[in-house]
Amino acid sequence: MSDLKKPAEGYSMEDTSQMLEDTLSIYTDKARAKREPHMSANDPDDSGCAIRSNRKTVPGVMSARGCAYAGAKGVVWGPIRDMVHVSHGPVGCGFYSWGTRRNLTSGTVGVDNFSPMMFTSDFQEHDIVYGGDRKLEKLCDEAHELFPLAKGISILSECPVGLIGDDINASAKQASAKLNMPVVPCNCEGFRGVSQSLGHHISNDTIRDYIIGTREFDGPESPYDIALIGDYNIGGDIWAAVKVLEEIGLNVKAQWTGDGQIEHIAATHKVKLNLIHCYRSMNYMCKVMEEKYGIPWLEFNFFGPTKIKESLRAIGECFDDTIKANVEKVIARYDAEMQAVIDEYRPRLEGKKVMVFVGGLRPRHTIGAYEDLGMEVVAAGYEFAHTDDYDRTYPEMAKGTLVFDDASEIELEKWVEHMKPDLVASGIKEKYVFQKSGIPFRQMHSWDYSGPYHAYEGFEIFARDIDMAINSPTWGLVKSPF
Amino acid sequence: MSECAVKKVTEITTDEVEEISKWIDTEEYKEKNFARTALVINPAHACQPLGAQMVAYGFEETLPFVDLNAFTKNAKNDGLIPEDFPTPYANTPSFTGTHIHGYDAMLKSILAYLSEGKKAETDNGKINIIPGFDGNVGNLREYKRILSAFGIEGTVLADISDTLDKEFVGEAATLSLPIGVKKTDELLLKLSELSGKPVPAELVAERGHAVDAMTDAHQYLHNKKFALFGDPDYLLGLVSFLLEMGARPWHVLCSRATKKFTKEMQALLDSNPYGAGCTVYVNKDLWHMRSLLVTDPVDMMIGDTHGKFAARAAGIPLLRVGFPIIDRVNLHRTPIVGYTGAISLLTQIANKFLDIKDDTCEDRFFEMMR
Fold first, then answer.
1. Cβ count within 10 A of residue B368
2. Which residues contact A372 (CB under 8 A, 6 or more apart)?
3. Which architecture characterizes domain B201-365 according to CATH?
4. Average per-residue pLDDT in chain A?
5. pLDDT at position B1, please?
6. pLDDT, position B150
7. Using CB atoms within 10 A as the burial measure, which of A474, B313, B345, B358 is most buried?
8. Quick check: B169 pLDDT over 60?
9. Do the Cβ atoms of B198 and B258 come closer than 8 Å?
């Protein structure tokens, strides 16, 4: 990483540490001992600084985390548009996750696009008592009959399926042979692991075991064939990213998994480079493809013009001079446009402070986009990160700012009270807590029903949204004159 | 596996898409769709814990946990929570019933817990209203306004729009959701009977306004066909209102309901000539509803946000009523119960039809007046 960031004005190691001390004092000794290692004042030049992560949430606190099923259905499998994704178990898990993650897809709903729909075995007491295997086999038949263009079925287990010991793997194998298409059993019961993160890993493993290598692209190979990994097309993100990658002359042969197609994913072992946006949820498969097929992979960041520029040049370095030249042309073409965006919004946002608490890659990846607008991220936390995510985060944050893991609602409230950010960027569970206390907020898992935020196209929308969140005249009405 | 054994990536062709797009709108497809026994597609119901949470949120300073009796007992034994700290508990398994059952189980548990060992020999003269699973805070405020107009001391239980006092149960009456004039009349008559007070002039005047609005606007709803889906209470109220307007409920779909509901709904439809031709579907989902809409079209659908895909496929508007509404602002603040609720429903439905007319008619039919 390049040179360290300047310490943020008004924030210091001592002050942030004292704030954390005050926060922890609300807990019992046991809870305190568990939570203390998950939060720290950031000290980027201390290599020993390490946030504890990927541990079980303290029981009883209000956590923002999801479960393994959420990671499998909502993140990895759900966005693949040409498959029927079955939430296997009682109705709730599928119902509450239906259409709420905003991974947009192309195609005709119910014909060749099934992501916007909700499929479930809707377990009843009978299924719990006698098992749901037969029902599962039957529903695969029904799905195949009613949706003849579907290219496969994923079976995503909910908690009760694991608890009663159903063998979905056997049912899936049978259905796959009978229907002559992939029927993928994903044992992603919510009780597995400590967060949605294990659901990502389990799903990656099922792609490895059932999908990758089972197809090859039709037509000639090209040295510019790549796959885009870990972009889930929230609000159209992947479309904005693919546009730029194509403009520099690359062929995006497979999308993992935003607006994804299963056969393209199956042939990804034939690409020349894997570009990965969300490292947390899909590094596993990048590593598998590297080991097994020798495909290199590269992390990149398409938030904000500074990071886009850096990333495009790094991508260019993986290819020949043609691509490198294209990269410079594309950067030059968008530079003026991006400067116009910055000129419009930066004067209203300069110096504003942000607290970010989201998942995957965003706590570190969005920092550059805020900085392009003259803002500063003074606190960044992840819901379900691992050590390697934090290692990538410390250098992006100034000394004395706050880095944290799996925060509870009460901790967030204490920190917001003390740090007084101008914007909180977090999830739906946090949104109304802060918005109703008069603090500007953006729901940054789903881009608050806006987007895309990725790539050049996305930055303009991001800038507009951040400006309106902070500068909406409605905030002026909060204080009553009487 | 040899190289040549690996299959090539295939693309779905536009011809295939076109063919299947047509096919899923046919009677033949509808029959296959209705023959499903295992797969549920786009269900219009959630599971019990959602209902239990809705109740818990209605009690101020209450934290909803999916919890276990033994767990709370141990926590009390270990002194982690005080002995007298209320921890009502309800079994709300996700694999039986729906969010409605979860609501009822949790509310019953809280009331039983709070009144345990306290005998209600005489009632305290107050009236409790149990609104049932309802995400519309406007409705809850409307109940309170009606009680206050009567001068009745009362409590809306599990009031997510406000707070709660403890009360004990005396006489009980079960009424449908007061949607439309007749069902609101029934509520007010019952309140009058229980309290011994006359229906206040304020509400009599409101009834007049509602009926006035309904007669004035009848022409925009008369004989229009409606598809409805949602929770049993909502459906009974909405169908009653549509029948009052001379509109035609046509497909009524409740994804989880008892025989009692079917009977009650059928009786309501049979009681009014505009109920003729309507079919009631229970244990069906919104993919069934899609088949109904494309094979036997109606003018409008009423239900929560989840109906938007079926409505779009059929090219009809969706009037958002029920829970959840996650794609329009503020509808949860507008009551649909009571006389004011009837005016609001009528306004939304009639103006929706008029908007469509203005948006889609040919220029020569684009008129100043509607």
1. 4
2. A304, A305, A306, A338, A342, A346, A459
3. 3-Layer(aba) Sandwich (3.40)
4. 96
5. 45
6. 96
7. B345
8. no
9. no
Q: How far is A47 from chain B (nearest CA, A)?
A: 39
Are A453 and A237 contacting, i.e. CB atoms less than 8 angstroms apart?
yes
Alpha carbon B152 to its chain centroid, in Å, reads: 27
Q: Say what the pTM is.
A: 0.94
Q: Which domain holds residue A164?
A: 69-193
- CB of A57 closer than 8 Å to CB of A63: yes
| Chain B residues in contact with A111 (beta carbon < 8 A) | 17, 20-21, 24
* Domain boundary, last residue among A146, A177, A193: A193
Q: Is A435 exposed, middle or buried (0-12, 13-18, 19+ CB in 10 A)?
A: middle
What is the spatial order of strands in the sheet that B300-303 belongs to? B279-282, B248-254, B225-229, B300-303, B318-320
Q: Is B246 left (phi over 0), alpha (psi -120 to 50) or beta?
A: left
Same structural domain, A157 and A243:
no
Where are chain B's structural domains?
48-177, 201-365
* B3 pLDDT more than 60: no
Q: Do both A324 and A367 map to the same domain?
A: no
Which tokens in the block code for residue B114?
């709070």
What pLDDT, on a 0 to 100 scale, did the predictor assign at position B289? Answer: 98
Strand B300-303 relative to strand B318-320: parallel, antiparallel, unpaired? Answer: parallel
For the stretch A380-389, pLDDT in tens is 999 999 999 9
Q: Is A77 left (phi over 0), alpha (psi -120 to 50) or beta?
A: alpha
Residue B294 banded pLDDT, cuts 50, 70, 90: very high
Mean pLDDT of B278-288: 97
Integer angstrom CA distances of residue B134 from A431, B58, B259: 22, 11, 22
pLDDT at A161: 97
Token digits for A277?
């946006």
Quickly list DSSP for A12-49: -HHHHHHHHHHHHTTS-HHHHHHHGGGEEE--TT-TT-
Contacts of B201 (CB under 8 A, 6+ apart): none
Q: Is residue A149 part of a domain?
A: yes
* Residue for token pair 């009362």: B154
CB contacts, 8 Å: A116 with chain B: 309
Q: Minimal CA–CA distance to B156: which of B174, B182, B135, B129?
A: B129
Q: Terminus-to-terminus CA distance in chain A, angstroms?
A: 53
Question: Which of A269, A302, A332 marks a domain boundary?
Answer: A332
Q: Are residues A371 and A311 in the same domain?
A: no
Query: Complex ipTM above 0.90?
Result: yes
Q: Among A96, A100, A118, A156, which would you mutate to test the B interface (most chain B Cβ atoms within 10 Å of its Cβ)?
A: A118
**Average pLDDT for residues A329-339, to the nearest whole number?**
98
- pLDDT tens-digit series, residues B173-216: 888 899 999 999 999 999 999 999 999 999 999 999 999 999 99
Catalytic residue list of A: 67, 70, 101, 200
A188 shares its domain with A277? no
Structure tokens at A270: 């034939």
Contacts of A99 in chain B (CB under 8 A): 306
Does residue B101 sit at the A interface (CB-CB below 8 Å)? no
Give yes or no for a cis peptide into B324 (omega within 30° of 0): yes
CA B168 vs. chain centroid, Å, equals: 27
Which CATH number characterizes residue A275's domain?
3.40.50.1980
At residue A236, does pLDDT exceed 60? yes
